[in-house]
Amino acid sequence: MTPEQFIAKWQISTLKESSGSQEHFIDLCRLLNEPTPAEIDPVGACYCFERGAKKTTGSDGWADVWKRNCFGWEYKGKRKNLNEAFVQLHRYAPALENPPLLIVSDMERIIIHTAFNGTVSKEHVLQLDDLRIPARLQLLKWAFSEPERLRPTLTTAALTEDAARQFGQLAQTLCERGHDTQQVAHFCQQMLFCFFAEDIGLLPNKLFSELLKNGQKRLEHLPQTLTNLFNTMATGGFFGNDPVDWFNSGLFDAAAPLPLTGTDVQKLRKLAELNWSAIEPSIFGTLFERGLDPNQREQLGAHYTDPASIMRLVNPVVLDPLREEWAAAKLTIHQLLEKSTQQQQEADELSKSQVTTKAKKAAEKALKAALSFNTKTQNQIENIFRDFFNRLQNFRVLDPACGSGNFLLLALRGLKNLEHEVILESERLGLPRSFIAVGPENVLGIELNSYAAELARVTVWIGEIQWMLNHGFSLAKNPILKTINIIEQRDAVVNADGSEPNWPAADVIVGNPPFLGDKRMLGAMGDEYVKRLRNCYQGRIPAGADLVTYWFEKARAQIETGKANAAGLVSTNSIRGGANRQVLERICATTTIFNAWSDEPWINSGAAVRVSLICFGNTVLTPILNNEAVAAIYADLTAGAIDAGSDITQAKILVSNGRICFIGTQKSGSFDITGELARQWLTEPNPHGKPNSDVVRPWVNGMDITRRPSDTWIIDFGFNMKESNAAFYEEPFQHVINNVKCVIEKKITEWQIENKNTQHLQRQYETWWQLWCSRPDMREALTGLPRYICTPRVSKYRLFVWLDKTVLPDTRLVIVARSDDMTFGILSSQIHQTWSLATCSWHGTGNDPTYNAKSCFETFPFPIGLTPADTGDGIETLDSGAIIPTVAAEYRDHAIAIAEAAFQLNQLRENWLNPPEWIEHQPEIVAGYPDRIIAKPAFAAQLKQRTLTNLYNKKPAWLVNAHVKLDQAVAAAYGWENNAAELNEAEILQRLLALNLARGKAD
């Protein structure tokens, strides 16, 4: 069929929808040279007319034509309202497997609506005459065979990012003029909703855009005009000649528009040009909040958490259990239907085959029984549907740190999608059509930030309205926006009086609580708040735990007391270790972790971080860890057998390992100086006759270990030197005045102006000349040692090195107060590395292992007779130069073997790091310090590449062999017949855990 023939036929046609639609479609197939449904799919499995069940409205099918993965197509009679057809397709899209195109036609027009996920929908209208144009005809051809070619290029994410960026900048401008930030936030959210309302037709005739256009001409009247509009939206009525619905909700109760400049209005008019009906509110809220909140403005334009990431918590906690319930309900329904059908068939067969009077009576009785059973079955099925509808309608999701509402919105959408699916299923079975009952009242929130709390309400409203319209449902009116008191603005973890706040009961809890490390809590929140918080949870959460753990403990308690069934929360991945892990251990003691992602990328406050996603609660589902089914999930978010013999989180702190492993000093100020300046000071006199070498020391941090030494020194007045005594060291003291004391004073002044909490700074200022954390216990443990063992807290490889007694370690280092090669060797072995990786926490976007003095070292079971408690009474230097501790005679051979292997490993590494042919040893400017290593000019460039990280990246054969020899010696000391290389990680951990538990019990 040619375009001319098609146009001629259908221009004069007066056929109704029922008599003309299928012929019209078949003619289109001929025109496009496409097969008809019956030609390629005789059974109608993927391409057919009248797809779906009989609708309760009386007509047949969910769509007049359906082609899987291409389109749903609905016809109307000529010049009928095609919007009604489009609404119907929207409503039944899930039953049609969500085709990418929704097409409607009245046999004169064909309108293609794109429905690709994550894109802004586009509409293509084809009139009959357009079919003469090859390019227009091609659009229709693609709908049949290549629908992907019709995918719009503008994504909802890109549209939303643009809208949030522009709106956020306008909000920032208004705040910079001195307006109250809360008033700016409320005004901007009112305008935001007006843009959305006019683009979906709730405000007629582009009313808000016209208001801005006219207002730009008379700016002095614009605030009053906006006030009039907002007041009308609050109550309903007329704005000029335009009827305005009653919106209510509180959003428009306080109409207080701010004065706007001509530039402001121009920006708003530009914003009005965007398609606000298609914004993604789960993204917009986060981005817009950054423009409203003064503390987040530097994050404008930064990344955000995408909805797919959030659904990794919402699905297992909220939706998957409900889907399981629905699957069980459907199975019961199908079993009932099968029984009913079987009984009806048996009665029918009996009726046909019997001719005697007695047989006929038996058949009549059977038919009557079948009819009664059918009625009973129908009632049972209706009750099953009704019960599940009630279950969904009464289901509550709580986000106790809801921010701008993205978790709540995605949970609400999921619940509504499931309810819609159930409604379609009930319709397919011929039951009366149900109404959508799930709505904003199904989600509950708690949020401390006032900007975010109000924005969360707007996010939920917009998301609710979008869903209803996008699925073909009309909006409830009078009012359009129901008052949402479900999002409370308050502190979720501690009340002002120090008591623990109540959370509302809910079926499940989800959310992304704030990330703030325990060290940063004091500076960010103040001493008084942190003290109140920690006192409130004393005995439940250790003082060194991060802020996020308080939400985990609260959620656990809600589950334990029956106020929730399950929870799914985000945490930094450090929750797997250290003090944080104790919170997960409490969770495992009272309930179950049933789904977790142990280490995933995430966006927090615009920055990329590594997180753990943890779902816990009452469930019988198979545990899933990192998308794999496992037997159990432990508190460190590893998997294993259900028996406790493989759960490393059960490891105990060992008394025999105590008080020799420490974190290095923390300076919190510019106490560090260059080696050049240090050497200058070392030769200068002081008025009290003491040298500056008393308070000037080489200083080493993690990078000095993994890379080359930086020749950095530090001013160290110790932990008990008075300010008056420190002043005698003239140059170092003056340096600290200029670079530490003055900086603290300036920061205190700035923070006071900005109304920030300065308690942390005030406490630092009390002893400004001292390092913030001087570690007196560490210094005492190192007294008398010529050297000590050191490892970076965060490192790709677990590397142990020696540091001279004069070197002061930074807080990014962990030190072990031992000078013998045997201890060094045990720690450097594969056995200890395996243990440390199982007990460590993880850090940064690189997800590097973080060595923890307590969880990694103090739990580690050294070989019997070679523990720190057994080896602290003296040392002995062997002929080889290796040093062993004084040990009992029966363990001496093992100590020697380990020390010799460790000594050789260290020598080989040092020779590779600093080849004698490439370097010179230069004595320090004053006695008592280790020699400086200076590169010979010809080898300076090559020497820069000689780092421990590069060495272990390469792993040359000699290094591997040296480690194998060491591992064999350590394995022998444990009494293991196999050496460490022959044991897999699980076997090593099981043996070490058994030894730890036995030793811990003895302790």
TrEMBL record:
PROSITE patterns, per the entry: N6_MTASE (PS00092)
Catalysis performed (reactions): a 2'-deoxyadenosine in DNA + S-adenosyl-L-methionine = an N(6)-methyl-2'-deoxyadenosine in DNA + S-adenosyl-L-homocysteine + H(+)
Enzyme class name: transferase
GO molecular function: nucleic acid binding; site-specific DNA-methyltransferase (adenine-specific) activity
Domain MmeI-like DNA-methyltransferase: start-end pairs: 382-616
Residue ranges of domain MmeI-like helicase spacer in the record: 183-252
A Pfam family: MmeI_Mtase
UniProt KW keywords: Methyltransferase, Transferase
EC number per UniProt: 2.1.1.72
GO aspect biological process, one term: methylation
Residue stretches spanning the membrane: none
Record flagged with keyword GTP-binding: no
Keyword check for Lipoprotein: no
PANTHER family named in the record: DNA METHYLTRANSFERASE A, DNA METHYLTRANSFERASE YEEA-RELATED
Protein name: site-specific DNA-methyltransferase (adenine-specific)
Organism of origin: Chromatium okenii
Taxonomic classification: Bacteria, Pseudomonadati, Pseudomonadota, Gammaproteobacteria, Chromatiales
